[in-house]
Write a structure and sequence with these properties.
Rossmann fold, seven-stranded mixed β-sheet, 10 helices, Quinone Oxidoreductase, Chain A, domain 1, alpha/beta
């Protein structure tokens, strides 16, 4: 029997409940994993709220690390006993054990701890997508990153700085400002009601940034448009502060000549070649110390508390669950 966390109905963290289920044997192209660390991401909250509907099993979660315990008849790799990580569909990572398509499994070197990978795998793939596919960040690039003290924010800051970019971050408090600076942000704008567009203009001599990443949503996206130079890119990557109002195409151009991206890391990870390349890049960045080490641990049975802490902004950095 597998211990799982499932959703009773879309809504708050109190809608998550513990349960046990019987797993069917792995199908021909599947493996079974005994999971040791499960990443917690904002996409899990969106699944819980019903923004991204779950399949009938109603088990959220998109990444984990574990050990292969059995394989289907057609599987030659990985093998029983291998340590692996995975990310992406099918969802259902909030479980002590689960079956998974074999092609999703990525082998792990012994030099990287389970919790270190579970803390950064999806966020790392997201960062790789944003820093390479959405806009090629490198030396001389100036980026604006909202929620720079969050799990993805810290990771993006570290990786963008490693690539040679200048990072301007926004945070809600002085405590989180210190976290963002520690991650490597060159400039930090503090305060939920800060006039960040004016401050960005001052920091860039009115030129604007090359690319801005907005995972806040709500009214923040419209203000972020003011921060980007002509022919720059705005990536809308979430809506932790609420739904995003409609964007008028005239707000993008032709006067501003802006490009707006709404990339999905789940769609990106459904492309097998892109998934493998990004996964290898993330593991290399973990080995090299570019990405942060393990985040804060919660028991799998305390998934609701992890959601509540992440949603309320009480956490700084990444969270993971231990079955």
């Amino acid at each position: 029997m597998a211990h799982v966390i499932r959703l009773k109905a879309p809504g708050g963290a109190d809608q998550l409940e513990s349960a046990t289920i019987e797993l069917a044997p792995p199908q021909g192209d599947e493996i079974r994993i005994r999971q040791t660390a499960i990443g917690v991401n904002f996409i899990d909250i969106y699944q819980r709220m019903g923004l991204y509907p779950l399949p009938p099993a109603a088990i959220p979660g998109v990444e984990a690390v574990g050990v292969v315990t059995s394989v289907g008849a057609n599987v030659t790799s990985p093998r029983v006993g291998d340590r692996v990580a995975y990310a992406g569909a099918p969802v259902g990572a909030y479980a002590s054990e689960r079956n998974l398509p074999a092609w999703r499994a990525v082998g792990l070197p012994s030099s990287i701890a389970d919790e270190a990978v579970a803390s950064v795998f999806v966020k790392g793939i997201t960062a790789y997508m944003l820093l390479t596919r959405v806009y090629p960040v490198g030396r001389g690039t100036t980026v604006l990153l909202h929620s720079a003290a969050g799990g993805l924010g810290q990771l993006m800051t570290r990786w963008a700085r490693h690539l040679g970019a200048t990072v301007i971050g926004t945070v809600g408090s002085e405590l989180k400002a210190e976290t963002a600076r520690h991650a490597g942000a060159h400039h930090v704008i503090v305060g939920r009601d800060a006039d960040f567009a004016r401050e960005v203009a001052g920091l860039t001599d009115a030129r604007g940034v090359d690319v801005a990443y907005d995972g806040v949503g709500g009214a923040t996206l419209a203000k972020t448009l003011q921060c980007v130079r002509p022919f720059g890119v705005i990536a809308s990557i979430g809506q932790s502060a609420g739904a995003i109002p409609p964007v008028d195409v005239e707000d993008l151009g032709p006067r501003r000549s802006l490009m707006l991206a709404r990339p999905s890391v789940m769609a990106y990870m459904n492309q097998a070649q892109d998934y493998r390349i990004a996964a290898d890049a993330v593991l290399s960045a973990v080995r090299e110390g570019i990405l942060p080490s393990a985040g804060k641990a919660y028991r799998l049975s305390d998934a609701a508390q992890a959601h509540a802490d992440l949603e309320a902004g009480r956490s700084s950095g990444s969270l993971y669950l231990v079955p």
